Amino acid sequence: MFLKEFEIRWNDIDANKHLGNSTYIEFMSHTRMAFLTSHGLSLDVINDLGLGPIVFYEHVHYFKEIGLDDNIRVSLEVTEHSEDGRFIKIEHNFYNDEGKNLAYAEMLFSWMNLKTRKLGKVPEFLLRKIQEFPRSQNFKYLTKEDLKKTAIRPKDLIE
Prior knowledge:
Elements (H helix, E strand, L loop, with lengths): L1 E6 L13 H18 L4 H6 L2 E12 L8 E12 L5 E8 L5 E13 L10 H9 L2 E8 L1 H6 L10
Parallel strand pairs: 3-6
Antiparallel strand pairs: 1-3, 2-5, 3-4, 4-5
């Protein structure tokens, strides 16, 4: 399990005087980039491959409030990925100093080709790195059928 520590600052707090929901997303993103960097995949390295990480969804479940000056740890566990490395599912948990679970999130991301702005092909170098990621105890390979189950299609407004 990868852990990243954060101290809650006044600008992380919302009108209800607790951690704002957008800050949860920022902390998870920061944790993911720290994880990737710790595995030799800094944003510069990823961009040099012509790719950028993109998020398909993030589902957050809140259990307890997080307040000003609290110290928290955000975990990251790779729970699933496709065999070709194009899709990676991650779970994040937020913990206080006592190890109490304050929030849980799951997310799915992929790699965007920075030129075509479409899903990118994972080069062998990146695939090897993904295969070396530590995995959760309940890790499994993502299949096309798994991805179809979570697919939501856009519904445009019609005038």
